Amino acid sequence: MLKSARKMEKDPEGRMPLVEHLRELRNRLAKSVFAIVVVAIIAAFFYKDIIQLFQHPIQKAVQCDVDLAQLSHKSDHKPCGNITMSGLMKPFSLAVKVSVMSGLVVASPIWLYQLWAFLAPGLHRHEKKYALGFVAAGVPLFAAGGWFAYLILPKAARMLIDFTPGGVTNLLPLDEVIDLVVRLVVVFGLAFELPLVLIMLNFGGVLTGRRMLSWWRGMIMGVTVFSAVATPTADAFSMLALAGPMVVLYFIAVGIALLNDKRRRRRDPDAGLSDDEASQLDLTPQAIGEAEPVPALPEHPEDRTAHRGGYDDVT
Question: Angle at Cα 283 formed by Cα 277 and Cα 284, nearest 5°?
Fold first, then answer.
């Protein structure tokens, strides 16, 4: 039975020996792998339904209504494709791939929590609060990006299949179709994390909202180039479908950063200064107030010496 290293003796600052760190890492990895394996085994019983979920958008957009024999005798048909599989071991390998992929996705809350539990003791209280907020926002953003990719996939597939020359039958291997869908979903999901990274840098004091806003021209160009390179498909529709939401999310992140900078300046006027920049001094004259009365010295010199404690001068 795996025992957590931190249950033995908790340090209030999260410190522990290197051996205990390694034991803790081993336990967290074991729990994560166990969760992924359990979910993958369960998904193996439903892998056909999962494949149908990925296959359906492309199949609905490009599937031919006739079989290959009828298709070979038609010369005026609209370009379409037939999803196929080749090889005796292909169905089994595809089932394993889909099951493992489903395990990674469905069990992500568990292994993300294990990663968080391993890193959290080394963070300060405000860092834990920010990290939890970023994780909580990152999951919906990734899901939104994946859903958006799944939404535009039929249109992209239809545009790509239209490039098929006349008199040519297009055969679409099922494993390549699944890989294309997964890659598109992952790319869109990771791209939607861009505003989260910018906000994280702003909350950490690395970037200001004004500096982020000054990059808007280069950011739009960079997002466009990234979309052209990152999208698995080569059509302009997929590139613009990825670049458009990223630009909108970028400006949303800039707005949040500007509000955070305003809040930070309200709490600390010198928060925006660099390490080698001096803060402004308040040189406004202020009232001195009433003078403190000084006791008068005796008139005779002998009395003054006695008043000074026996010394004949001020010292």
Answer: 145
